[in-house]
From TrEMBL:
GO terms classed as biological process: methylation
Enzyme Commission number: 2.1.1.-
Alphabetized Gene3D superfamilies for the sequence: Vaccinia Virus protein VP39
Region span, Disordered: 1-24
Regions of compositional bias (Basic and acidic residues) in chain numbering: 8-24
Lineage: Bacteria, Bacillati, Actinomycetota, Actinomycetes, Kitasatosporales
Molecular-function GO term, any one: methyltransferase activity
InterPro entries registered for this protein in UniProt: Methyltransf_11, SAM-dependent_MTases_sf
Alphabetical UniProt keywords: Methyltransferase, Transferase
Organism: Streptomyces maoxianensis
SUPFAM superfamilies registered for this protein in UniProt: S-adenosyl-L-methionine-dependent methyltransferases
Protein name: Class I SAM-dependent methyltransferase
Presence of keyword Methyltransferase: yes
Length: 267
């Protein structure tokens, strides 16, 4: 697949259906490049929460080491299912779900050891109370217009006491240009402007959408979705990590947070 135009970047409203359609198309076109660019950093069977490189093996946000054995875990926006493969190695029973067929083809390229489901996070094709844990490393949540709908779906498929842990771009980043260098250090937009970031084609159709929520919005969304927030993790940039990933870099990472990880539980 190819694109013969340069999309226009703008801020404008984009609803659920338009956001979902744009995400599917964008990831179909860009999955190859994403995996080529970031596959080595992600590792085939590591669970990395974001560009800082925080690894679930050290973070233990899903539960203490050893506690995942035998648990049913749903990974949402799994991409090439690297996190699910790590979960399987811990003895969990993961299911990797993603909207993009091409991303899931990359999962198959790496291995056929994890069940894969092609579906939208807003309508999970599972029975109630099917999983003990749900997780998502930058999958789906930043791209949907109605995160509460996703959270309610996640709650529905989780068993009582289940954990839901997801990472997103840290909301403070929206006030700064998405640049890894010094130009990304000066506030250029209102943190409070929730208008989505949209790239659109010549006909005005969205081809990429990202939705901004403030920290307070995210907390309210978690609660409206039926969860308790038990931790909010802001990974610090570690000394060993010298890589740039889009607007994430050691320069910015040492000054402002780049990722927010919400650790939630349902009663
Ligand atoms: C930034 S990638 C993250 C992939 C993987 N978690 C990782 O860390 O590499 C975002 C993923 O979310 C998926 N995605 C976006 N919107 C989605 C939706 N509404 N439902 C399910 N998956 C979605 C995309 O297809 C893409 O694979």
């Amino acid at each position: 697949m190819f694109q013969d135009y340069e999309p226009e970047a703008t801020r404008r409203n984009a609803g659920d259906a338009e956001s979902s359609r744009a995400s599917r198309g964008w990831w179909e076109r860009n999955a190859d490049e994403y995996q080529t660019e970031h596959g080595a950093f992600l590792g085939d069977d590591r669970f990395v929460w974001g560009p800082e490189g925080l690894d679930e093996a050290e973070a233990g946000l899903l539960g203490p080491a050893g506690s995942l054995k035998g648990l049913d875990v749903l990974e949402i926006g799994a991409g090439a299912a690297q996190c699910s493969r790590w979960l399987a190695a811990q003895g969990a029973r993961p299911v990797a779900l993603d909207l993009s067929h091409r991303q899931l083809q990359h999962a198959l390229r790496i291995g056929d050891d994890v069940p894969l489901i092609e579906a939208d996070a807003g309508a999970l094709p599972f029975l109630d109370s099917s999983f003990d844990i749900a997780c998502s490393a930058y999958g789906a949540v930043p791209f949907v217009a109605d995160p509460v709908r996703v959270f309610r779906e996640v709650r529905r498929v989780l068993r009582p006491g289940g954990r839901w842990v997801f990472s997103v771009t840290h909301p403070i980043r929206w006030a700064f240009p998405d640049e890894p260098g010094p130009e990304g250090l000066s506030v250029s937009a209102s943190y409070f402007d929730r208008t989505p970031y949209v790239e659109q084609d010549e006909a005005g159709r969205a081809v990429y959408v990202e939705h901004h929520r403030t920290i307070g919005d995210r907390v309210r969304d978690v609660v409206a979705g039926g969860f308790r927030l038990v931790d909010l993790v802001e990974p610090e940039w570690p000394d060993w990590n010298s890589q740039e990933w889009g607007g994430w870099s050691p320069l910015r990472g040492n000054l402002i947070p780049g990722t927010a990880i919400f650790v939630c539980e349902r009663d």
